[in-house]
Amino acid sequence: MVCDFNKLLSYSLKILSRKDYSVFEIKERLFKRCEDSRIVESVISKLLSIKALDDERFVENFVDVKINRGWGPVRIGYELKKRGIDEALYSPVIEKKYSDKRIRENILKNIKKWLRTKGEITNFKDSKRLFDHLLRLGFDRENILDILKNYENINLE
Asked: What one-character DSSP code corresponds to residue 4?
């Protein structure tokens, strides 16, 4: 496999123009095209120096998008870890952007959506399905249970 610095740089800039990627993700993509680690590392260095690649910016954007989609902090952290981001980098961003009020709002938003598609909770099985769904979205047990315990007292309209 022939590796060319300029072709790899051009490819990297092309994919970064469409979407932000972490350094880890770009490295994975470049190694699929070129096995020479020196060239890949030099492309990564160039991308970092021209600020085309920035893990901090990636984390900020990723967290914003996923919060708006209704994901919980646990799942966001898990997905960032899968993308090669260090917990020391993403944890403060999640804490800053995800207040307790916002967590509660997103849980309620997801409950409303679930009720629209699945119907009312009529038995334990339904509440267990909803609970599991909220867990998969990345909310912690305490917040979910707190809201579900007060289910009758919540205005879901």
From this structure: -
In the chain, domain spans: 5-49, 55-97, 100-153
Task: Tell whether domain 55-97 is in CATH 1.10.10.
Answer: yes
- The pLDDT score that the predictor gives to residue 14 is 96
What whole-number distance in Å separates Cα of residue 53 and Cα of residue 94?
A: 20
Number of Cβ within a 10 Å radius of residue 103 = 19
**pLDDT tens, position by position, 26-71:** 999 999 999 999 999 999 999 999 999 999 999 999 999 999 999 9
pTM above threshold 0.85: yes
What is the rounded distance in angstroms from the CA atom of residue 107 to the CA atom of residue 16? 32
pLDDT tens track for 79-133: 999 999 999 999 999 999 998 899 999 999 999 999 999 988 888 898 899 999 9
Closest residue by Cα to residue 119 from 72, 127, 70, 71: 127
Structure tokens at 7: 């072709």
pLDDT value for 156: 47
Structural element, H or E, at residue 19: none
Instruction: Write out the two tokens for 23.
Output: 């350094």
